[in-house]
């Protein structure tokens, strides 16, 4: 991480202390946020949770001013947790996510800010300052209106579906300090690389923290096909199948890229070929 921009409040200064909760299913992520808040000196962490349902209970019990809320969690995600809490008990919220497409939804639900993992101390400091400003404005007509908008959005199934439909057509990827908006048709193929997905786009590669199963469920099956437990290809990039060895085949893309076709995915390719005939 870069040198922190967070600094303790001056001795003797009369500063309203902020009560915050941290919600993330990754212990290391919770620990990182806690350490940064402890450096600030003006925030008291009053609780942590590792899931959405637990988070809703924690917020209802502790009534914090601020919540750092992970988006993607098993069982109940951050958006659903906030809907459970309701406007009356909702704190100021900074969404935290490793999945770029949720950045758009964070703005749609009027969050104070969002943090895209991995973030540095400067970015965290900016989000925290915005959250502090929001907490100081709590009770104002503007903030109450935003909270009502947030609850209305979360309770509106059509609105949620519309946002999810829009984000499925593009993928947001943060790389080297930049955010790329990739259209589905631009992607050549995707491979798993540790805890990340590597997107190959016109000779360039971009990494995004995601699981293969979750990514596959979001991609249009009419455009993408999985050919290996760690490989997904854009159907439009397929050029031919080439015999490899022992009855195996390799998938050759239009740019010459050669990818392994796993035995377990032969049926998918065969179905695709039959549909094309």
Kindly summarize this structure in a few lines.
This protein is α/β, with parallel strands linked by helices and 277 residues long.
Could you please describe the fold and organization of this structure?
This protein folds into two domains: 18-165, 3-Layer(aba) Sandwich (Rossmann fold), CATH 3.40.50.2300; 171-276, OB fold (Dihydrolipoamide Acetyltransferase, E2P), CATH 2.40.50.1020. 36% of the residues lie in helices and 29% in strands. It has nine helices and 15 strands. The strands form four sheets. Strands 2-1-3-4-5 form a five-stranded parallel β-sheet, sandwiched between helices. Helix 2 packs parallel to helix 3 (78-85). The protein is elongated. It starts with 17 loop residues before the first strand and ends with a helix. The model is unreliable at 1-14 and 157-168 (pLDDT under 50).
The general outline is elongated
Largest sheet: 5 strands, parallel
Number of strands: 15
What structural category characterises the helix and strand content?
Answer: alpha/beta
Percentage of residues in DSSP E strands: 25-35%
In CATH, the topology of the largest domain is named Rossmann fold
Q: Averaged pLDDT, please? A: 77
Number of domains: 2
Radius of gyration, Cα only, in angstroms? Answer: 22 Å
Order of strands across the biggest sheet?
A: 2-1-3-4-5
